[in-house]
Amino acid sequence: MQYVSTEYRKAIKQPNRNKSYMRISLGLINHMAQNSAQVQGEEFTYFSDLVKPISAEKVDKVYATFERSFSKVDQSMYFLPRYGAGNTYYNAGIVTSGLCSQGNAPVVIIRFNTEDPLDIKGLTLEFGDAYPVRFSVETDEGINEYENAGNTFQTEDTFNNTTFMKITAVEMVNGVGRLRIHNIIFGIGLTFDDKKIVSAEMKSCISPISESLPSIDFNVTIENMDRYYNVDNEDSAINYMETGQKMEVDFGYTLNDGYVEWVKGGTLFLREWSSDDKRAKFGAVDIFEYMQDEYKKGEYKPEGITLYDLAVDVLDDAGIQPEQYWVDPYLKKVTVFNPLPMVKHKECLQLIANAGRCVVMQNRDGIIMLKASFEPEKEVTANQIAEYGNVECLLQNQPYAEYAAYEKEYARVDMQQYFMPRDRNYIKVGYVSRSISNKDGYFDENPVITISMESAYTFHNLTLLFESIQPVEFLITTYNNGEKRKSFRSKGIAEKTVVYYDFIDTDKIEIEFTRAKPYNRLHLKQIVFGNETDYEITYDDLMSTPYGTKLEKVKELRVVRTIYTRGTELKDLTSSEIMLEPGQQEELEIEFGNAVHDLRAVCLIDDVEQDFGVIISERKTYWCRVKITKPPSIETGAVLIIRGYEYNISMAMETTKLNNAGSIQTWNNPLISSQDDARRMVKWVGEYYKGANQYELKYRGDPILDYNDLTYLESRYVNDLLVRLEEVGLSYTGALSGTLVARRKI
């Protein structure tokens, strides 16, 4: 769920909605040009970076240099380190050593290392504050001259049959200065707003238990009355579109004060496009649609590997950069041993997510995420506890009593408190600090209560139930994966204190009690976590009443454990005829239908082993690479045999009964081998199947809802009916509307 202002939430729920907007940005980048470009020459300063401006890394630290009206003393610029071997410099972009002045025109030459010339539609240059007001771009087909009035320049001109670009500064904004290029994009960005958009529809689907891969499909129709997007128009940008180009979608909504608040709708990747004389249509999908290659590195690991490391290996093997994915740190706590099968990378991520009780998804920034999808176990500790106190019971819902104690204004004679027992057979009184505050209410050592969660968790509000004496002040600090997220102090403390705050992706909370009433301990009975969501779909939001379906009950859930043991029988695993070329080393890839280990390769001619230097250079459980290092002097036919052992694979079952009648569901994830993992899987999947009610909803549409979100659904029969969104549809035709498919969460 996207987090928006309180004003947005109020305005979107009004009976009469305000105006909605939509905006689509399409990056028309020539990726071959972007990936093959290299800056040529040596006429650059020693602190230049000739690589990062092409790889789109932002210049955010600028060095002060002696140029007219350039250096600033407002702490926005940096002193240059001295020139010398081994020194490192911030990314300053491309900076020419020569100044642009009368008779001198600094030049940046870029060559494209491709076999064939490139056709490039558009050019985007980020110059920074010291930009050229006149410059030229020379390519194989001629010279284009431009005037410029800002630090960013963009043109839709076409550069066909291009092998190089020569950018020459003719006149600088400050008169005299170096040519600086912070960023170069070989292409342009197209933007369609609600004046151009005729209609758009986005549909996203997910399985909350990773039973299937998620998907996002987006289609938009725009007005094409000027026929700019006709395929026969040589100047049209449509001829330079490529599958996989990035598309960003944003939705806007007018608040009651007239301000338009924008919500990011998603980052998608272009799949198809078409047009006629009136309309142009574009389709885009999520990143998983382009992850079609197989993962072959599955390997049985007797020592084990964490699901976190396994996921990172799969993503790296798929060519996904670290900044393009996020893996829940919780998966570092889950170790598996079995190999991944030879399937597509995206299917491997699905298996990993399922084994770790996570969902695999793409967020609205286009980032692949493996995120825990269960309510985590919680543990509470304290830095100090009175002898008769108990910290573990803070998370338990049970009645508590109080002991009369020598604390100021604490002991009472209303028969509501107990005398302290001599035998130390204490009743449960909740948490009591060992320290007593001084006359000013301060402690020698502040009591600190820490709640640690198995994985990051989102919930709304936290309730602290104190006893008859409450503290004066406390400080709450939240963490995620060891990093501090936010700290805030208490505003008002009563016997029942509700902390109104959205705890987003929090895996640890520290509550430090910094002040109490004079001469008192801290007494805390219970900590209550708020709801997992604060969003409700009401009948006022719906276009019609919910269409409910009672799904088939699951009588029994079975989770299969797959257990590997090493084989003992040496076998010829594969046999294939090959032709060896004279003097030519060869490399072959072999795939196996079964899991294997301890491989050896031999070449035979008439059943006699030959010394052709056959080695296995890389081996995994279902695949290996073979090299011929000593090829024969003449063309020779031979038989290549891979010998080794097959793993013995046995199965075990973890079972739970969910209902007295219904179907039997069997869950078989090849990564699951341990009994603990199987039991956690049974519980997690079983809870999903218990929510056997499915709802189809037509509603007014809200761009902040994501697939896998939890929300409350108004019901005439069930209070606080909690559902999880499995399908989210959003349409735009000048106004918003939407569809949802949700499943009840028990």
Structure summary:
Helices cover 7% and strands 47% of the residues.
Task: Write up this protein.
The chain has 746 residues and is mainly β. The chain is 7% helix and 47% strand. The protein has 5 helices and 49 strands. The strands form 12 sheets. Strands 1, 14, 15, 16, 17, 18, 19, 34, 35, 46, 47, 48 and 49 form a 13-stranded mixed beta sheet that branches. α3 (307-317) packs antiparallel against α4. The chain is globular, with a radius of gyration of 33 Å.
Enumerate the spans where pLDDT stays under 50 for 5 or more consecutive residues.
none
Radius of gyration: 33 Å
Distance between the termini: 20 Å
Class by SSE composition: mainly beta
Which descriptor suits the 3D outline?
A: globular
What portion of residues is helical?
Answer: under 10%
The mean pLDDT is 91
Percentage of residues in strands: over 45%
How many beta strands in the DSSP annotation? 49
Annotate the secondary structure layout.
Blueprint lengths: L5 H7 L7 E10 L1 H6 E4 L21 E2 L13 E2 L15 E7 L6 E6 L5 E9 L5 E8 L2 E6 L4 E11 L1 E9 L4 E5 L1 E3 L1 E7 L3 E9 L9 E9 L22 E9 L5 E16 L3 E7 L19 E2 H11 L7 E3 L7 E2 L8 H11 L2 E5 L5 E5 L5 E5 L19 E2 L13 E2 L12 E2 L15 E19 L6 E8 L2 E7 L6 E20 L7 E9 L4 E2 L9 E4 L3 E12 L5 E10 L5 E6 L4 E10 L2 E3 L3 E6 L3 E6 L7 E11 L1 E10 L5 E6 L6 H16 L2 E7 L10 E4 L7 E12 L3 E9 L2
Parallel strand pairs: 3-4, 21-24, 26-27, 34-47, 36-45
Antiparallel strand pairs: 1-14, 1-17, 2-6, 5-12, 6-11, 7-10, 7-13, 8-9, 8-11, 15-16, 15-48, 16-19, 17-18, 18-19, 20-22, 23-24, 25-29, 28-33, 29-32, 29-33, 30-31, 30-32, 35-46, 36-44, 37-43, 38-42, 39-40, 39-43, 41-42, 46-49, 47-48, 48-49
